[in-house]
């Protein structure tokens, strides 16, 4: 008899309690104004839950009555379901990881962009892909000392063009050479001819950002000439060297990654 009475009371309380609770429900505000995009696809909106209002203190029915049966009888204690908090996870696409070479290039781009004391380089010397209709095959480097451009011939009648600094008057030259060695952050030993003209120069310099050969060097044949980087990018497009071809560090890093030892170099 007691079991039947309890079951009947529970059923009635459940019906009345649901009706009362829903009649007094308070809809929780969604923490999301718009759907979050996950890699280009709209994410499903989070399920909204309802925070139920507290029962009237003098009510012995509904949710309060159920709590009375299965608790210590403290009518004043109520438990409300809380709305979902905003997710702590971000669904923004991950940025593409840069290669070590790209990271190194980006350092020099930031330095040039944030140092107003350095003279601006003419934008025409920035790297770009251009048409090429010469006779040299893909993989050949063509150095045009007159226009101060270096071309890396590619397939399909195209070439990568870079701005360079070339030799001062009396130090320019022409010919065909081969890349015989490649070095990252090369050390520098000024040749005796240069030391005779500039006895103030150091006899040896370790590789690094202050080294005049810059981040990369490609050695041309058995000569003292190189295609190399520079810690003075504002000199690109000028006659400044003793016969070497200098490039911005980020540009020589790019060229270095595209050519191999044995590549042909045509200087005109």
From TrEMBL:
<keyword id="KW-0961">Cell wall biogenesis/degradation</keyword>
<feature type="active site" description="Proton donor/acceptor">
    <location>
        <position position="228"/>
    </location>
</feature>
<comment type="pathway">
    <text>Cell wall biogenesis; peptidoglycan biosynthesis.</text>
</comment>
<feature type="signal peptide">
    <location>
        <begin position="1"/>
        <end position="23"/>
    </location>
</feature>
<keyword id="KW-0378">Hydrolase</keyword>
<feature type="active site" description="Nucleophile">
    <location>
        <position position="244"/>
    </location>
</feature>
<keyword id="KW-0328">Glycosyltransferase</keyword>
<comment type="similarity">
    <text>Belongs to the YkuD family.</text>
</comment>
<keyword id="KW-0808">Transferase</keyword>
<feature type="domain" description="L,D-TPase catalytic">
    <location>
        <begin position="139"/>
        <end position="268"/>
    </location>
</feature>
<keyword id="KW-0573">Peptidoglycan synthesis</keyword>
<dbReference type="InterPro" id="IPR038063">
    <property type="entry name" value="Transpep_catalytic_dom"/>
</dbReference>
<dbReference type="Pfam" id="PF03734">
    <property type="entry name" value="YkuD"/>
</dbReference>
<dbReference type="InterPro" id="IPR005490">
    <property type="entry name" value="LD_TPept_cat_dom"/>
</dbReference>
<feature type="compositionally biased region" description="Polar residues">
    <location>
        <begin position="78"/>
        <end position="90"/>
    </location>
</feature>
<keyword id="KW-0732">Signal</keyword>
<keyword id="KW-0133">Cell shape</keyword>
<feature type="region of interest" description="Disordered">
    <location>
        <begin position="77"/>
        <end position="102"/>
    </location>
</feature>
<dbReference type="InterPro" id="IPR050979">
    <property type="entry name" value="LD-transpeptidase"/>
</dbReference>
<protein>
    <submittedName>
        <fullName>L,D-transpeptidase</fullName>
    </submittedName>
</protein>
